[in-house]
Each structure stands twice: as C-alpha cells, then as structure tokens.
C-alpha cells in the first residue's frame, strides 16, 4: 500500500530485529520520502546495504540524522543515552526523536536532560519481537496487529506524538498512550518477569549433574521447551531491560517468589484446595486470553 | 496400519486426554482384539460410547478388567491406588497391569503392596499431552514421535515389560526403561517445575490491582502468553502430580529459587556479567534443543 510520506526523511538508528523490521515496512509502504539507516556496527551497516532495506546507509550517526524529520532509536535501552547524546547536536530544529525501548521511565530520564529546544521527544514501545536478533531477522509484518505503546511527557508536543503514532499504525500496529511508570509495571509482569523466569530455569537445568542434564534436552517437550523459546532472546537487550526496569521487575519477582513459596508450602503440607485454586486461576486467565482473541 | 493384536483384550480405565488418545490409536491400528473402556464418571462413559472409540464401554470396573490381558490405568496419579485396589481382585491370572502416571515412585509404592501373585505390573509414562482434557480432547497421533518411559521393578516380568513397550511403540512412541527415582527427578525439572511456575505467574498476575490486571491480558503476547498455555492444564491431574512428586519437585523449586534470587541480586547491584552469563545459558540450551530436533 503506497501512502503519502509521513516524513520527508526518516532515520532509523540500530538495525536489529526491531529496527530492520521497521525499515522493511517503511520501505514497503513508502511512508518516508527517504529512509536513512545507521548502525554503530560496520558489519551491520554493510549487511543493511546488502539487504537493500534502506534508501541510504549513513557512515556516521551525525550524517544519518542531519535533515531527518524523525529519528527512531532502535538500540538496547542501555545504549539510548549515549546514542541520543551523540545524535541530538546534529538534528535539525523541529525534528522528532523517538525510540523503541522496552523500558520507558529510564529512557525518558536519560534522554530528557539532553534535549535541546525545538526537538520533540516521543518515547514509544512496539510490543513485538521474536527470539531472533540482527538485521537478517526482521520482517515487515512484525508489528501487524500488535500494540505500540506511546509514553509522551505531559508537556510534550501532541503533533509529534500523533505523527509517531501514525508511523506505527502504518506498520499495522494498534497504538495507545500510557503513563511511563504504568508501562514499566505492566511490562514487568507480562514480559520482563516471564523472560527472567525462562532464563533462570534454563540455568537451573544447565547446573544439573551429568545424566539428568542431558535428559532435560531429551525430554524437554514436556513443558520445559515452552520456556526455552523466550530464553533464546538477545542477551544485551535483556540485560539492559532488567537493569533499566529494576524496581518494577524486582517487585514483581518478589510477589512471584512469595506466591511460589506459598505453593511449595501447600505441596509440602498437602493443602489440596490451595493448589487447585492456583491452577484454576491459570485456566481462567488462559480462557480470558482466548476470549479476547490474543491466544 | 493393521497389525496382529498385541492383546486379545485390552482394558483402558480412565478416558481423559491420555486414555481416549490411547483408545483411538488402538482402535485405529487394531493392536487389541477387543478394546474395553471404563471410566468412573457415568457422563464420560456415555460420551465414550457416543464417540465409538472403544469396542465396548463397561458399566463397572470389575466388568471392564475381567478377562482382559492388559489393563492400562489412565487416571490421575492420586487415584491410582484406589482404582488398582478396586480392579485387581477381578483381573485374571497372567494379566498385565500398567499405568500412565506422570510420577512413578509414588504409583509404584501405592500399587506394589496390592498386587496378587500372577499379575505383572509395568509402570509407564507417555511424555505427551496438551492443555486440554476429557474424552473429546484425545487424538490418535498424540504419542507419535514422543517418548514413553517404562520404570519396571528389578524383579519384574521382562515379557510383560516388552509387551507394554510394544503397545506404546504401536502408538508411534519411542520407549526407554528408566529407574523410577531418576524418572521423577528428570520430570520434576522438565515438566513439573515449568507447570508450577506457569500456574504461579498466572496467580501473581491475577492478584494485581485493577487496571494492571486487565492490561496483563491485553499485552500478554509479550512473553506471558507462553506461560498461560501450559497453565491451562487439568487441575486434578496437576494437583496429584505435585503432591506425588513432592520431594523432587520441592528440591528443583528450591534450586530454581536460589538461582532466581541470585539473578535478583545481580539486577539490584548491576552485575552485568552475571546477568549476561545466565541469559547466554538459555540461548545455548535452546540451540542444543534445536540441534537434537526437539524444538
């Protein structure tokens, strides 16, 4: 579908799974007059040029963002601050800076003090991903039918927010505005804690002695395998997410641990009603999920 | 595929997901001369007769197992003892008793003292399942390409073990013999602990206040959803599994909790190397899984 360009020139910085998917979709739909790509890694830049998923691959960040109407940072949340500090002095007045980070409070705290007058910052988070990473892993339908959450500041520029929302909707996403603290809390339970548990159980299994350890792999289909899919995700991205959503994640993990200990106690003492009640909740939640057609 | 009957008469007791899948497959392949079904629930018996997945539906357990060459108990592990006690007096000498319980030590401890002379007991566990339950949820290919573990006692009857193994291989399963204690330990980490974690995180999410709780469902696709699938499993079956594999499960949960607390500490104090190391393990395990073609 060809639409009138939303931006004369759009720059995507960081061409991993999210950045390269966004690039592919923007190129396909023509919603940017010119799409410029930049990645700090020379190997990724070369690969992006080879793949032909941007109109131009810039050799420096400064060159990528100069004259761009909108710059979308698609780097791990731990790299958002230094990347923004490098690029902001080269952005033109009136341009929009946005990002795709999985944590919003930390990104806002890092970037807001760096913002010069005349640059609007629109924090965003597309809730989409796979367990793969890098420029080859992206695909143009990644955001189709998925949410992108926008967490603009109260004193932000409503027009800039609307333009970034339009960009994500042109990628097939549904958009919603949300308070950044609330975003971080919701994501802690629906995404960050599940990933932490999945990484952890893989480690626990990996520590088992000899024969049991090899049999974990052999018999993984019995439930364990569902955890390994999300445990295959990008280490640097997830390290940064954990460190940048520390408070909300540790709170959710503390609640979860209390609940797991209560379950352990019920198992030890044979409290059948308690155990069945907890299992029934899982079923109810799954049914609700199916009802709202997410499952 | 039609094969010579392995058993003149086979009785399946308990027609849930596993029992009804076994019935469907046995009927399809003709590996029993006559297939008799019995379930303690009159509604299930009526439904099995309607579905036509057995040659005959018996009205009593005694009637079902009389003259059967092999009886397979497909009831929750907590019901194995009382079911076996009811049926064994009616079984003919030379017959085989088997089961499909997800825990093996507790089932063996419960059933062995009840065994009369002339009845061979072959404990077995097909590692297959879905999140659905009941006689309508079964399908004949459930065991295809999956393991069935046999945990025969050292003084058991090798011919009976071979016949039960042949029954499961006729269902498309691969079979392996294993020590019951080792079985319970391996299953604790690959199946029972993942289910416990999945039930628990659903409960933790369900306890969240107002808006966050409803948004868990809305944004579940970000990782949480992978946990809800296995959390939709049958409550009575899982209650019994947890209570009957208590020691191994609590030990694996204790190891997991230590590991999760170590991760929490690393997040609190910003120990990047520790976090990345744990995440890398998840990736390695996923890669190994894919290599052995289980994923």
Structural class computed from helices and strand pairing of chain A: alpha/beta
Oligomer class:
homodimer
If you average the pLDDT of chain A, what whole number results? 94
Parts with pLDDT < 50 across at least 5 consecutive residues of chain A: none
User: What is the succession of H and E elements of chain A?
Assistant: EHEHEHEHEHEEHEHHHHHH
Word description of this protein:
The structure is a homodimer of 295-residue chains. Chain A is an alpha/beta fold and 295 residues long. Chain A has 2 domains: 7-177, Rossmann fold, CATH 3.40.50.720; 182-291, 6-phosphogluconate dehydrogenase C-terminal like domain (6-phosphogluconate dehydrogenase C-terminal fold). Chain A has 12 helices and 8 strands. Chain A is elongated, with a radius of gyration of 21 Å. Helices cover 52% and strands 13% of the residues of chain A. The first copy, chain A, has helices at residues 17-29, 42-51, 61-65, 80-87, 105-111, 158-170, 180-206, 210-218, 224-230, 235-244, 246-269, 272-291; strands at residues 7-13, 32-38, 56-57, 70-73, 96-99, 120-126, 147-150, 174-177. At the A-B interface, helix 7, helix 8, helix 9, helix 10 and helix 11 of A face helix 7, helix 8, helix 9, helix 10 and helix 11 of B.
């Amino acid at each position: 579908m060809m639409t009138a360009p939303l931006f004369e020139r759009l720059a995507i910085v960081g061409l991993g799974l999210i950045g390269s998917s966004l690039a592919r979709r923007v190129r396909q739909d023509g919603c940017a007059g010119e799409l410029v790509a930049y990645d700090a890694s020379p190997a990724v830049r070369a690969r992006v040029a080879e793949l032909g998923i941007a109109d131009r691959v810039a050799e420096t960040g400064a060159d990528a963002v100069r004259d761009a109407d909108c710059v979308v940072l698609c780097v791990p949340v731990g790299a958002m601050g230094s990347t923004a500090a490098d690029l902001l002095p080269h952005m033109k007045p009136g341009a929009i800076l946005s990002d795709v980070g999985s944590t919003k409070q930390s990104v806002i705290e890092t970037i807001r003090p760096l913002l010069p007058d005349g640059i609007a910052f629109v924090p965003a988070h597309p809730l989409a991903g796979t367990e793969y990473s890098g420029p080859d892993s992206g695909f143009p339908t990644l955001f189709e039918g998925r949410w992108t959450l926008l967490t603009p500041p109260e004193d932000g520029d409503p027009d800039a927010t609307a333009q970034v929302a339009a960009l994500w909707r042109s990628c097939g996403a549904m958009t919603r505005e949300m308070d950044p603290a609330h975003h971080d809390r919701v994501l802690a339970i629906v995404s960050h804690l599940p990933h932490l548990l999945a990484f952890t159980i893989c480690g626990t299994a990996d520590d088992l002695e000899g024969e049991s350890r090899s049999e974990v792999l052999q018999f993984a289909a019995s439930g364990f395998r569902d955890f390994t899919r999300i445990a295959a995700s990008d280490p640097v991205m997830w390290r940064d997410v954990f460190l940048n959503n520390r408070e909300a994640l540790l709170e959710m993990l503390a609640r979860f641990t209390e609940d797991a200990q209560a379950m352990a106690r019920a198992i030890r003492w044979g409290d059948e009603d308690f155990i069945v009640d907890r299992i029934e909740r899982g079923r109810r939640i799954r049914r609700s999920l199916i009802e709202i057609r997410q499952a």
